[in-house]
From TrEMBL:
Domain of life: Eukaryota
Source organism of the structure: Penicillium egyptiacum
Protein known as: HAD superfamily hydrolase
A GO MF term: phosphatase activity
A Pfam family it matches: HAD_2
NCBIfam families hit by this protein: HAD-SF-IA-v3
Record's keyword terms, sorted: Magnesium, Metal-binding
Listed cofactors: Mg(2+)
Length: 253
């Protein structure tokens, strides 16, 4: 039996319902960039989520440049990154809500004092801190245990690169076997799995049972150990991880 002593939480659409707000905010900026490079395609926030969920804005821009074969000047990219952060944070300050059941689960986990708690996100640190503060989750996480692939590393990156999880392990002084990660996206799950960390696939933020089941199947096929449809299931999912019980989602559908 594995003894878990540290829990790593993804932020966007795992703790905070922020993805839709974030992609809504950056769609206009992405379209401005496409127009500036004489490219005819345009994105809605919904289309950005479909193509780039789990990536931060910098990662999205790398993907866009590859997709459309153009280049953004590094200095200009930094300007865009800052503008995107400002737009998203303004949206979060106005509209951010916690994922259903997340605050209740965090309160219970925090009160038990059995686990170290950290946030491990692709998003910029300012955005992550704004997200958890606006929904009352900042009291559960020390600020030095909020890690951002965009801001915390010497070289910014984005999930599915495992660098941010490897960095988080180093900072909290834990091995991958002592930790568990909760992730809702392919890129996030792959980031943790590539770092050797067992993953609980959280699908509760997806709309509709069919979409949730499809995502559960996708994430378990990638290597997630178990699936959480609602935060009330967290303790059972953690027990599955500690007992090394993997869920065969396909057989349960």
């Amino acid at each position: 039996m594995t003894k878990i002593t540290e829990i790593f939480f993804d932020c966007d659409n795992t703790l905070v319902l922020s993805e839709e707000l974030a992609f809504e905010a950056c769609a206009d900026l992405a379209n401005e960039i496409l127009e500036a490079n004489n490219l005819p395609d345009r994105y809605t926030g919904e289309q950005l989520i479909k193509d780039f969920v789990g990536q931060n804005f910098r990662g999205m821009m790398v993907s866009l440049q590859k997709k459309y074969d153009f280049q953004i000047d590094p200095e200009k990219l930094e300007e865009y990154v800052t503008r995107e952060e400002d737009k998203v944070i303004a949206k979060l300050n106005a509209k951010a809500k916690p994922c259903i059941g997340a605050n209740e689960a965090l309160e219970k986990i925090y009160a038990a004092q059995k686990y170290g708690l950290a946030v491990v996100s692709s998003s910029a640190l300012r955005r992550v801190l704004a997200s958890i503060k606006n929904v009352g989750q900042d009291k559960y996480f020390d600020e030095d245990k909020v890690f951002s692939a965009a801001s915390s590393l010497p070289k910014p990156t984005s999930k599915p690169d495992p660098a941010i999880y490897l960095y988080a392990l180093e900072q909290v002084g834990k091995t991958a076997a002592e930790t568990v990660a909760i992730e809702d996206s392919k890129s996030g799950a792959l980031s943790a799995i590539r770092a050797g960390i067992p993953v609980i696939a959280y699908v509760g933020s997806f709309n509709g049972e069919d979409t949730q089941n499809a995502m559960a199947k996708t994430l378990t096929e990638l290597g997630a150990k178990t699936v959480m449809y609602h935060w009330s299931e967290f303790e059972n999912c953690l027990t599955d991880i500690e007992n090394d019980v993997s869920v065969d989602v396909q057989s349960s559908l």
